[in-house]
Design brief:
Number of helices: 7
Oligomer: single chain
Structural class: mainly alpha
Distance between the termini: 24 Å
Strand order of the largest sheet: 1-2
Order of helices and strands: HHHEHHHHE
Number of domains: 1
Length: 133
């Protein structure tokens, strides 16, 4: 399997699969921290500024981990973007099934249904990554 450094490189798999992708050092550091949290079985809370590339930095390691992951967003708009655009695009780029049905099964049908019912607070974007097992 490719390393995160390779995946996030200017000539890496993400650059080839995602239109307009550009590597960011902070994004790679965050992705490595997320992957390390998965490897160690620890929890991680990350808050980062606009332009960091947070979405890919936590979704790529989450998809590669094969674990159940809870992602909490500050807005419903971002939640919808993650589920309907970013997850399918990254899953396809990484060679994973990306159909909504497959993602719903992977996330857990109950969690997917519940997420549609929750009105998320409009606060600073916060990411909570946790092994849900």
């Amino acid at each position: 399997m490719s390393s995160l450094r390779d995946l996030f490189a200017a000539d890496g798999q993400l650059a080839r699969a995602v239109p307009g992708y550009r590597p960011r050092a902070a994004q790679l550091r965050m992705a490595e921290a997320v992957a390390e949290a998965f490897d160690l079985g620890s929890k991680l809370v990350v808050e980062a500024g606009t332009g960091t590339g947070k979405t890919f930095a936590y979704l790529v390691p989450a998809l590669l981990s094969g674990r159940h992951v809870l992602v909490s967003t500050g807005t419903r708009t971002l939640q919808d973007q993650l589920f309907h655009r970013d997850l399918p695009m990254l899953a396809a780029a990484l060679g994973r099934l990306a159909a909504d049905q497959g993602l719903a099964e992977r996330l857990g049908a109950g969690a997917a249904a519940a997420s549609r019912e929750i009105s998320w607070p409009r606060t600073v974007e916060r990411l909570l990554l946790q092994d849900a097992r």
